[in-house]
Amino acid sequence: MPTVLITGAAKRVGKALTELFAARGWEVIIHYHTSERAARDLSLSLQKKYDSRHFPVVQADLSNPVQSVEMLLKQLPQPLAGLDALINNASVFDASTLAETDYDLWRRQMLVNFETPFMLMQAFYKMFGKGAVVNVLDTRIVNNDSSHAAYSLSKKALTQLTQMAALEWAPDVRVNGVAPGPVLPPPGRDSVYFEKVAADTPLKRVVGLDSLAESVWFLVANSAITGQVIYCDSGAHLNG
Length: 240
Known about the structure:
Family: Belongs to the short-chain dehydrogenases/reductases (SDR) family.
GO molecular function, one term: oxidoreductase activity
Organism: Geofilum rubicundum JCM 15548
InterPro entries: NAD(P)-bd_dom_sf, SDR_fam
Number of strands: 7
Radius of gyration: 17 Å
Low-confidence stretches: none
Protein name: FolM Alternative dihydrofolate reductase 1
Distance between the termini: 41 Å
Helix content: 40-55%
């Protein structure tokens, strides 16, 4: 049975990804940072639905790359012995312009959104030698909006890493990215703000969680694709 590790798997996009991969016959390792109750509830509900699988839950603070690799890859929960796919979904999204960004905010964005994904990708390649990696990016990678400067730069860096790793690790490990647009309102924003963001896209609609999850699935399942970024964003990237 194929196994996937999904970071930030307990809520929002991560939960949708977990449910889709579970429905398609995969064992899923559910990572969480602080959402223990949500992670365990999700695991339990999936165990009841698919009683031949385990859906283990693993906690790790992704602001500590070395610890994250140790917890998530070097100490895989029993009875699992390997991974077939890694999905770097977890991220932090803090508002701050370049002028406002202090060192602590900068480090947090880079650690969680770029450095730990890199360390997990590298460990996945070295430990298992084959499979698929999908990095969840952001449609912001195509513009220079500085309202979330450190966040955007961390995702731009992860995009370049995605393509560099795809080239170096071919043909054994495929590495791709999905850049979502308006999927869910960010923390602190209401539905009115979110609807306006969606209305500004060419398709004038929000991105459904099912659509985003299907994009990730496509990149994991299609063995002929590597080094690609799918913009699942209602066309937002076309606005620049």
